[in-house]
Amino acid sequence: MISTRSIVISISLAVLSMPLIYAQDLSKYREFQLGMNLLAVAKKANVKPSEARVIYQRPAVIQELEWRPQSSYSSSAQRDPVKEVLFSFYNDELYRIVINYDQDRTEGLTDEDMIEGISAQYGTPTTPVAKIISSPSSQVYSDSEKVVARWEDSQYSFNLFRFSYGSTFGMLVFSKRLEALAQVAIIKAIRLNDQEAPQREIERQKKQDEEKRAAGQKARPVNKANFRP
Questions:
Q1: How many CB atoms within 10 Å of residue 191?
Q2: Phi and psi for 58 in degrees, rounded to 5?
Q3: Number of Cβ atoms within 10 Å of the Cβ of 19
Q4: Per residue in 28-66, is it b (16+ CB within 10 Å) or e — as a string?
Q5: Better-scored residue on pLDDT, 216 or 22
Q6: Which residues contact 26 (CB under 8 A, 6 or more apart)?
Q7: Residue 101 — φ and ψ, nearest 5°?
Q8: pLDDT, tens only, 110-130
Q9: C-alpha angle 212/215/218, rounded to 5°?
Q10: Closest to 6 in 3D by CA, of 116, 103, 104, 80
């Protein structure tokens, strides 16, 4: 007799693998092609491009766009196993995708179950002793997660991991070329921000003082006319 757990695993793996229709094509996650521009990604995800956040503007433009696939499903039975996706762009090119899987939709699945379901689409993985940074560029502190399995070629990399602060799974997908360029740009952007911080504080204080002085000048005639000792 087939166990209930086996049935649940089989159904869950089928749901996980159904949207990934490009077998062993590591340049794509679902219908999203690494290197796509923000407008194209937003259109496919059915979100507004204006929802993208600009994280850095110099020396390169780094942007992030969030997508919640589950919002497109009308019933919990059809709910997407992916809870949320974060797209990252380097000069308007998609270079990084972080996928957070829904805990309820992957409950009970082991590392081997997840690897099996993903391998059906992306081929045989490796299990390196490695960690990856799963946190977005906008986050000050970086979250380092242990890689459960990795699918990669010379240009692209898929990394399955478990979040260290919970039992949920995640996947990091990136273009090796664009990721390298983006990381260099982010390091330079942080350095520029640190160098310019003192001058920005001076300008902020100056603006605050000017606004306070203007408010005082506006209030002075009214308060003077109504003043009584």
A1: 11
A2: -135, 145
A3: 14
A4: bbbebbbbbebebbbeebebeeeebeebbeeebbbbbbe
A5: 216
A6: 122, 151, 152, 153, 155, 156, 157, 158
A7: -85, 150
A8: 999 999 999 999 999 999 999
A9: 150
A10: 116
For residue range 143-188, list pLDDT tens digits in order.
789 999 999 999 999 999 998 877 799 999 999 999 999 999 999 9
Residues counted in the chain: 229
Written as one letter, the residue type at 30 is R
Q: Determine the residue type at 7.
A: I
Q: With the C-alpha atoms ordered 66, 69, 71, 76, is the resulting torsion angle positive or negative?
A: negative
Q: What is the largest CA-CA distance in the chain?
A: 94
Output phi, psi for 150, to 5 deg. Answer: -135, 135
- CB contact at 8 A, 176 and 157: yes
